[in-house]
Amino acid sequence: MIRTETHQGVARLILARPEKKNAFNGEMLQAIDRAVAAWGADPAVRVIVVQADGETFCAGADLAWMAQYADADRATNVQSARDLGGVFHRIAKAPKPVVGRIQGAARGGGVGLAAAVDIAIASDRATFALTEVRLGLLPGVISPFVVERVGPSRARQLFMTGETVSAVDAERWGLVHACVPHDDLDARVDAVVAQLVQGGPEALLACKQLVDVVAFQPSHAVFDQTAELIADRRVSTEAQEGMVAFLTRRKAGWVP
C-alpha cells in the first residue's frame, strides 16, 4: 500500500498502489497514519516527503472501498469520514515539515493530500480535479485544506465544476507552491528539502504553529501572543545556538 524510506534525516512516504492509481483505502490510510506518527516522534527525521509510484499521484478514495459503507449506519459512516479526515489533519499538523512531490494526476483526496502538505511541488505533467460532485458527493474532509490554499471563491468553482486544472494554473491559484518541468521535479524537491534542514527543528515547528495562530484571527487578537512567542523563542537553547553559530560564522548544530 505504501513504501517508506529514510535517508540522512529525510523520510519518504511513497504511495505504492499504482495499479489502483494510488487510491486510498482503509489499510493504506492506517499505514500512512502510522508512518507520519512515527516520524513525527523521531528526532532523527528532519523532513517528510510525500510522493507516489506510477503515473498518477493519487486518485483519491477508492470507490470500491467507499461503496462498502452504503449499507452502514450513519455513526459508522461518520466515523469512517473522521478517520479519513484525521489522516489529512495529522499530515498538516505533523511536527516536521512535509513536502509534496506531485508527479502526476491528483483527484479528489489526492488534491486534499497536495493541499495538506506544507510545501507542494508539482510536475508540469500533473493535473488536479475535485470530481466528487460528478458522483453526487462533495469534498468534505479535504475542504478545509483546499479552501485555505485557494480561498473560498476559487474553491467554490473547483468544487462545483469538477474541472481539471493544469499544474500551471494550480500554481497560479496557490494550490501548489511551484510547477516545474517534469525532469526537474526531483531536483526542486531536493532543493526545498536542503533549505528546510537549514532551519532549527524546534523553530520549524514553531513557524508552522505561528501561521495557525496568525492566519485565523484578527491582527489585534494575536498582537500579545506573537510577542510572547518570539520572546520565548529568543531565549531557547536552539535559538541561542543558531545566533552564536551565525555570529561565529559556523554551521548551527542541526545543519547536516
What keyword list fits this structure?
256 residues, 2-enoyl-CoA Hydratase, Chain A, domain 1, 2 domains, four-stranded mixed beta sheet, 11 helices
Summarize the structure.
The chain is of the alpha/beta class and 256 residues long. It has eleven helices and ten strands. It folds into two domains: 2-196, 2-enoyl-CoA Hydratase, Chain A, domain 1 (Alpha-Beta Complex), CATH 3.90.226; 201-247.
Which regions are unreliable across 5 or more consecutive residues at pLDDT < 50?
none
Mean pLDDT: 93
Ends distance = 31 Å
Helix-strand topology string? EEHEEHHEEHEEHHEHEHHHH
User: What is the CATH architecture descriptor of the largest domain?
Assistant: Alpha-Beta Complex
What is the number of beta strands? 10
Radius of gyration: 19 Å
* Strand percentage: 15-25%
**Order of the strands making up the biggest sheet:** 1-2-3-5-7-10
Share of helical residues: 40-55%
CATH superfamily descriptor of the largest domain: 2-enoyl-CoA Hydratase, Chain A, domain 1
Number of domains: 2
The general outline is: globular
